[in-house]
Amino acid sequence: MAIGWYLTVSALIFCIGAVGVILRPNPLVILLCLELMLNAGNLALVAFSRMWGHEDGQVFALIVMVVAACEVTVGLGLIVAIYRRRLPINVDDLSELHG
Amino acid sequence: MTATTFGWLILLFPLLGMAVISLTFRRMPAAVAGIVGTLAIALGFAAAVCALVALQGQPESHRELTSSLWDYAVSAGLDARLSILVDPLSLFMALVVSGVSTLIHVYSIAYMKSDRGYNRYFAYLNYFVFSMLLLVLAGNFLLLIVGWAFVGAASYLLISFWYRRTTATAAGFKAFVINVFGDVGLVLGTFFIFRHTGTLEFQKAFAAAPHVFSHNDTDLVAGCLLLLVGAFAKSAQVPLHTWLPDAMEGPTPVSALIHAATMVTAGVYLIARMHPFFEIATLAADIGAIIGCLTLVVAATIAVVQTDLKRIIAYSTMSQIGYMVMGVSVGAYSAGLFHLMTHAFFKALLFMAAGSVISAMGGEQSLDRIGGFRRAMPFTFACFIVGGLALSGLPPFSGWLSKDDIIGFLDHRGGGFLILGIFGYLGALLTGIYTFRMIFRTFWGEPVEEARELEHGHLVHHDIPTNPQTGEAEDTDVGFPGPEHHIAERDIAMRAPMATLALLAIIGGVLQIPGVDDVIHNFLKPTFAGSSLAQVDVKPGPSWVGLIIGALVALAGIAIAYGVYVRRPGTSAALQARFSRVHTFLYNKWYFDELIDALVVRPVQWMGRFTESVLERGVIAGGITGGTTGVVRAASAAVRRAQTGFLRYYAAAIIVGLSGMALYFLISAS
Amino acid sequence: MSAVLFFIAAIGALAGAIGVVAIRNPFYSVLALVCHLIALAALFLLLRAEFVAAGQVVVYAGAVMVLYVFVVAYIGGADEPLHRPGGALKVLAPLFGLAVAIELCIAMLGTVLKGVSTDGAPYVPGFGTPAHIGALFLTTYLFPFEIASLLLLVAAVGAVMLARRRRGLEPDEVVAPRAAVPRAAFTGTMAEAAGFRAGPGTTTEPEKQTEPIGAQTSPPAGVGSARDRSEGGW
Lengths: 99, 670, 234
Prior knowledge:
A: mainly alpha; B: two-stranded antiparallel ribbon; 26 helices; 71% helix; 4% strand
């Protein structure tokens, strides 16, 4: 298959993830949607790596995975901490940073 | 070792002394600090003597040596180096400074013995000597300015040495502010000259001066006048002299060292050092001479009516420096510097003797209360007489030869300078009067209670020490004078320097007797080789006429003082009543303090208040700062609305931004 | 063959992604994401990135997702509305998403990159194998590799610090009612794991158990002292 197809899939997944981030108020699901967006990026990186015949893109993809894993651990830790404090698990209610 | 190596050593020893004392002052015993400080200056003096020997070994045309240790900034059009100039003039000054300083350090060991700030005192004193030596040995304008400012700072520290005494700190401020005013003059003057010569080095600047400046060149005259401002501030010349009498708040050895022998002569040194410029800018030189003449008369008239013992000597110092400034301004370089040297001897001696009298009075300085100390303190009396005679200029004392050397040169130049010379004689007459007024009132007459007690060997002690100026109660802890100040009669460490200075005051004149020898003139010749004025050879005949007139004038002054204060004791009161307005005018020091207050201090205060209230509060705080914060505040209030705190709105904003950016790239790519 | 596989995998990935966003229960969202990740791994394999695909399955779909499942189980995957009633974002969000998607597709179609329309560079044996990737990681990308490992460490420590129970910061009444629920000690309740951990040997245990919920105004002495000791933590 042409590389363009892969990139299109990547773009669609990215947009689905972005829409999810906006739509869902549950921080857990927001994290999942962020995973989606990161994976879309990964797919594009690997597709370009295939296109050029260089493995650098795959290396980037692996590092993105590492970053994603870190983000997940910290994000989930935050969610657990929020839960411990008996605060609502809803980003709309966590709006103390308003101006 | 060459002369310049010794030149660096002259600087090094006082610096080391200061560093050692100030870094170890908590642990070092007081006695050791005094010895270290004295030793440092003595070694500096020894180095100066070695430099002298080394320099005299050179042929006459090679006696101006520069040495540079390090380059601060050297590039096209700028040569800022750490360089010294060792030539007869700087070495002469270094010898006088370090020599007199050594004696005064020895004197201080005993004088300050009971003071709690003993180590601090010696650290300051060494710092002062270092600064002064740096000033005279500096090989370029930059280092000269550094030394100049250092000397001002050291003077401030030493005047306010008893820092809990309100009058002392106020005097320190005054001295420092006026000195800084002079510093500004010096820096600006340097700039005027540097702009044309393009070099900071003295030797190169002097060599370039005749080529870049025409006679009475405007820029050069301005530069020289600004240099004169610096010189006048440091040397206490009218109208920048008001700090010197107040500076007598410092310890007496400080007055002897700084405000008689060394620092106040810096202005004289500066004019002598810059003589190639002053000889081109004759207008500035003439102004310098006139101001010097004015100062010598004004200060002498004030000294005639003052009653504070130390302040009389301070005004006398101003007057004598007026002679020197007048001398070096008209070209009598060797005479002016000769007078500088002899003045250092006899004025330091007078201060030490006065300090002794004051401590015998328990801090009292007013002549109205002092009297009849002749029998109580014979040694002090002898020293005072020697110093007084030398100051008045009576043969064969040193002051006679040096002062009349200056006046002789003026007479020789003739014309308008003759008038200055006549004023010089007037000053000499007044000098005789006020010096012996001081001596007669201190040592003659009915002995006061303290003097009688002292004759029986009891030194007066106050139960509660007080500030003699204001009568405020003090203690004897650090920051105030110690419990007792030793009088010069008793301690060998004080007697030895005084005896040495007395001897020098008597015989110092032999260095330069018209027709007999010309040691100082010959020694300084290489420095002033390029000067046309210095080559003028005054014939011994007219010189001797001048000397005899000077001696007669001085004798007349002494006779008047004798008549008024000893033979008919009521005369002075009668005179005071008869000429009460003149007396008040002179007693208030020609109202210089009030004049400066009205002309400078008050306008500056008013300006400060104006800037504070209008510029600072209105324009800066209200307009600039307030306006900026107001804009930021209004803008942030507007932007704050967008900060809803809802995460999803932020995410949506990011997506909108992303789509906008993508759109931009798409449009710009197509 | 590869085209068929691509379409199957692509549809799987897109379906998984839509599932993540659309399913209301977070637990099922996580499962949809696992589905999506596995499909994505298949796409990676088609792109001859075998090591990345393996990492995707093992690390992502395996380890990270297990973490998600645990957290969902811990905080309770309650059903919730997709959005707040009346939220303007409900309409706007798909529009924004659509706009970005269209723009990206236009960019893809209008690109001048010739390679986009090809199957990619000629295949070289060993492309994408662990050996090659490892060589890159230990030569050219050594520094990013080390930084990534450091980042992982920091994230691990940070997560522990965040999720750790902090006494002293929480108000007492938040903790006390939970502990006061009558239940035998160490029966493995979530509340016990999360916070209050009173041993069966403490003298105050029976009294506390009989007290009604919320009646306890101050913690018992023994517990209070234990709390004091650990106060001032994070």
